[in-house]
Amino acid sequence: MGAGGVHALYRAADTPVHRLPAEVKIAATLAYVLAVVLTPPQAFWAFAVHGAVLLALVALARIPPLLLLRRMSVEIPFVVFALLIPLLAGGQTVEVLGFELSQPGLVQAWNILAKATLGVGASALLATTTEVPDLLVGLQRLRVPPVFVSIISFMVRYADVIVAEAHRMRVARLSRGYNPRAIWEVKALASSVGVLFVRSYERGERVYLAMVSRGYDGAMPQLHPVGSARAGQWAGAMAAPAIAVIVMGAAWASL
Q1: How far apart are CA 130 and CA 246, in angstroms?
Q2: What is the pLDDT of residues 68-83, one digit of tens each?
Q3: Which of 14, 99, 185, 244 is most buried by a 10 A CB count?
């Protein structure tokens, strides 16, 4: 990861959310997501409160809603899967728009959609308001094992490298007048994936040898001087997950 580089996910701004230390935001995001996951799916009002808390944080961070929605598009496979559950699940059925849908399946679909949407939204908020080097520093300060921090740092850096390599291979194909799209041309696409894997593996080996020759011993160095977050910062950041925990407890108590 180049020093001073800014990842495409980060959106620079001067807001209270941006100014929080990374370890505080990571811990708060994890606590919020756990509270959402543990909320019973029957408590619809609880998810409305969870969503309102997340939207308030998005507004506080001054993140355009459309930008956040675009970054949450990774959730689409879960949405498709959830929409199929009421059609495939068993149990008592109910007619909706001419379709016989499973009532337990509807509850399961809602459970997946609500929790996945809020979890992805919270993760997108974290990535949008925190630079990647700061995230790695936050993980180090939270005492995450160094090997995991190293893996994450390499993954972030070389995901972009692999995407760029795939783009160059596609440009090379197009420059030769070949653009496989039909189903019977899947063999060419599979071959391209195989070549991309080999190139990525070879590049990874070269990078590793270069790092070892420069004294790499399996642990990444501290990216910034270590300093503790202030108590006020922890208290402010934990307000949102505290609300989520209270709402989750009230939801279980109301069943």
Answers
A1: 27
A2: 999 898 888 888 888 8
A3: 244
The full DSSP string for the chain is --TT---TT-----SHHHHS-HHHHHHHHHHHHHHHHTS-TT-HHHHHHHHHHHHHHHHHTT--HHHHHHHGGGGHHHHHHHHHHHHH--SSEEEETTEEEEHHHHHHHHHHHHHHHHHHHHHHHHHHHS-HHHHHHHHHHTT--HHHHHHHHHHHHHHHHHHHHHHHHHHHHHHTT----SGGGHHHHHHHHHHHHHHHHHHHHHHHHHHHHTT--SSPPPSS---PPPHHHHHHHTHHHHHHHHHHHHHHHT-
Quickly tell me which residue has 């300093």 as its tokens: 227
pLDDT tier at 3, thresholds 50, 70, 90: very low
Q: Could you give the CA distance from residue 27 to residue 109 in angstroms, rounded to a whole number?
A: 28
pLDDT, one tens digit per residue, over 192-238 is 888 888 888 888 888 888 888 988 776 666 655 555 788 899 999 99
